[in-house]
Amino acid sequence: MAEHIRARKIDVVMLPLLAPYTKPKSSEDYAGWLQVQQEQDAAEFIAHLPANCDLVIVDHYALDETWERKVIDHCDRLVVIDDLCRPHIGDFLIDQTFGRDGTAYSQSKVKSILAGEQYALLRPEYYQFHEASIDKQAPARHRLLISLGGYDALNITDAVLDLLARSPVDWLEAVDVVLTVSAPHYKEVRNRVEQSGSTWVLHDFVRDFGQLIMSSTLAIGAGGTTTWERAACGLPAIIVPVAENQAATASAMSNAKAAIVIKPEELEGQFDAALIKLRDHWGEFVRANLLITDGLGCRRVLQRLLPMLSGGEKPVWLDLATDADIRPIFEWLATPEARGQAHGHEPVDWASHQRWMQSALHDPECYFYILREADVAVGFVTLNRRGPSEYEVAALLAADVYGQGLSLQALQLLSQLHRGVTIRATVSPADAASSRLFSAAGYERQSSTEFVLRRKS
Question: Which of 64, 202, 369, 391 could form a disulfide with 193 if both were Cys (CB 3.0 to 4.6 A apart)?
């Protein structure tokens, strides 16, 4: 991994290796991963920190508030990544677990908690994959991706291949199997793939896993980070949890009807029916996955971190709207001031408003954002899809924040998040203020009523 990181022009410092190495007792033996006491690890880490360290990000199951207390005074800001719901201290805590909210860390002393699937930490290209996946059509024959972790100590990959060999799956066009050459059961899997014929392919190294996901139409995988990669690409999957910390994510995916979860010991009895269900309800599973994450998690995290690093007193950001925002938005829309600025939103009764927002919140072709200033909701912005990688924007501010430049900030934040699409805006020819606003935000005038912001990579 060190060489992999250095290849991306990032410096790597290796802490001392121990001899002899003590093998962890299990995949949940987090202290065994670290090999030393947290205090020793913190001291060795601090010794390599620059004197003017702006930001430390820590992501390790064996490190908790014990380590953080030692390190926090040696940096300006401390960010923790976790999903075990343990107490922490620091400036930000990021937990991308599906359905997770900040209450899971009520015992932590953290200034801001970024919890839930909207913060799934995926590479930028997954947003483009997500956009392309909205237009997916059901294939005549399917391509199956099997990826149960590069190491797969439980040898579930071989068990799945055995079941597949005994199943009536002539509707599968091809099977891609991902397993690293260092996995303990690699030779068994390789031999089985070689004996299967030309439709099964073993990948012992994948440089672009996203493209492999995009070329697949079904998957069998574990419940780790690849869950978000599959979801962003709208890939229906059977999830086989291979570690205790994957159980919550797997359960949430099942409840959202985005995946079918099978415990390792239940594969034999449930495999065939699950695979057929994925095939027969493919479109429903695709849609459910696309609603879970959109590949913009890293950009959302950056929009929260950068104001903190620059010392801004009142950070402004865009949050994905939830059911809790339905009533406040209805009240904003009901004010006389709002009626003058809310393009595309006609006066409606409460029942109609609820239906409109519920539909928007559960539509993968709509982005519904709440604009927040220092945790206070001050407006909303929507993007509605008009075609492949093309959206129309609409926005509204709360009446008590007019004239503070927040509309421009909202449009700038929106363009930072959605760089890979074209955004259109419609204004009244008589609305000079809106025309000036969109021009200031970098939109080009196309006609007396239309402005456009061209896509950027």
Answer: 202
